[in-house]
Amino acid sequence: MTLKELQPQLLALTPEEKAQAIQFLAQSLSNFWPGIQKTPGVMGGEACIRKTRIPVWLLVSYRRQSATDAHILEGHPDLSAGKDSGLNLRN
Fold first, then answer.
1. To which H or E segment does residue 59 belong?
2. What is the mean pLDDT of residues 8-31?
């Protein structure tokens, strides 16, 4: 099944079912982003940058507001942009 074929079925889901589907997909992809982890009881179980309490949604929000790497790193000195850090801020 292709995503195009799946799209009408996804759109027909209730909001609760969509949230469950997103959680399922995120869990199935967790090994693809080793720099991201979800820990029950930490930041409400939100996906965070590994070994921090910085939620992924926050970094996505920064990017949507056109924040530069320098701006993000200035506000979060515990992050680095190096490819070996588990975080790559490049688009």
1. helix 56-64
2. 85
Residue with tokens 């079912």: 17
User: In sequence order, what are the residues at sequence separation of 6 or more whose Cβ sits closer than 8 angstroms to the Cβ of residue 46?
Assistant: 38, 55, 56, 57
d(CA 72, CA 39) in angstroms, rounded, equals 23
Condensed to tens digits (0 to 9), the pLDDT of residues 26-76 reads 777 766 667 888 888 889 989 898 888 999 999 999 999 999 888 999 998
Q: In the chain, what is the straight-line distance between the N-terminal and C-terminal CA atoms, in Å?
A: 29
The answer to whether the pTM exceeds 0.85 is: no
Q: What are 47-56's contacts with CB under 8 Å, separation 24+?
A: 49/79, 49/86, 49/87, 50/86, 50/87, 52/76, 52/78, 52/79, 54/78, 54/79
Label residue 58 left, alpha or beta by phi (over 0 means left) and psi (-120 to 50 means alpha). Answer: alpha
